[in-house]
Amino acid sequence: MVPGDETVRAIREALELSPENVPLRRHLAETLAGLGRLDEAEREFREALSRAPDSQEIKTGLADVYLRQGKTSQALVVLEDVTRRPEAPGRAFVLYARLLWARGDVPGAVAQYKLGIETNPDAADRDLEEALGLAHDEEPGEVVEGRLRASWQGTPPPWEAEIERPRLTFREVGGMDDLKEEIRVRIIYPLQHPELYRAYGKKAGGGILLYGPPGCGKTHLARATAGEIRAGFIAVGINDVLEMWVGNSERNLHALFEQARSNRPCVLFFDEADALGGRRSDMLSGSGRHLINQFLAEMDGVGSSNEGVLILAATNAPWHVDPAFRRPGRFDRVLFVPPPDAAARAAILRIHLAGKPADRVDCEHLARKTEEFSGADLKAVVDAAVEAKLREAMKTGRIEPLATKDLAAALRTVRPTTREWFATARNYALYANQGGFYDDVLKYLRL
Q: What are the backbone angles phi and psi of residue 356, rounded to the nearest 5°?
């Protein structure tokens, strides 16, 4: 056993004797994060936060883990809350600065970074300072977008994204029947019956924005959409587009749309859409606005036709998406992806149990006990049950099949991760529901 594993084992044993010890649980989470075991660290930070919901240090640690996992929307929600608090730790401002820098908001990142090191000089991040042009041998006053803009020349041409050919279809997606039908009408049928849509003056193309809590299958559904029509699939993340040199991000975005147009039919899928299409009114930098304007121009097909290019996007933070994206011809269909219902949860459990030794697991019984669980949460339940069986097999040398009781025991160790999202979404649905944008959320919450 490596030293790190021994440390984790010792802390877990101590927690079994003192499960309510929040500092010890936080220490376990930080140790796991330091070892790169980010999924486990996230679970422990969440557990610690459930026992100390006002701890800004624990929230900051959770945000750090989110950022390292690429979960930028979740990190943004946490950091926006923490940095508004008078007791916010300096590290929270530095993490927020890193997130703003990744989004292309250099002035905002500089401002947050300065707040962070003023609050706690030990929170300094030399790599981020270098990226922001805040090295100690430079004058802070010289850090302006002009410095960045002057440096982009001579950079290599935009890279080409990998085009997938997914074999996944809607059959492998548990539940979501209404969403699947909406996508069929909006995207699939126009390609399968072009003459009917042409008769009514409708083109094959357009955009759908999927929103909802993390882990509920938005990306899975987008990939299955491409598989249904045997189309190419280009998955776009924020890191694929954003660069620190002004102008390069817009060029990368244009290159992605051109690549999709050259490989029609093609599904162009933007994950973390709020990072690329955030509200222009919230942005301090001109570069962020330029990127959004470029995105809108590409969606409108200015200078090029988008027929046969199917644009899907997913976000966990729809409240950060610029309203201009929801105009007709852009993301004019905005679909709420809720946690799976009981029938879908049973189907998802069967999918995750496929190929594993299992003895007549009662998935319907388990589904009734997993209300509010996302698809990712259900996968975590199956993984936890498998790990417990593996530990037994290591001791006995026998492979025993998974039974209902094994998953029920694992269920007690996993909490639904959707609750935090709904706590935030509920406020927007109640107090910022212009045009009925969040009506589906209100319906789901029975408000």
A: -110, 150
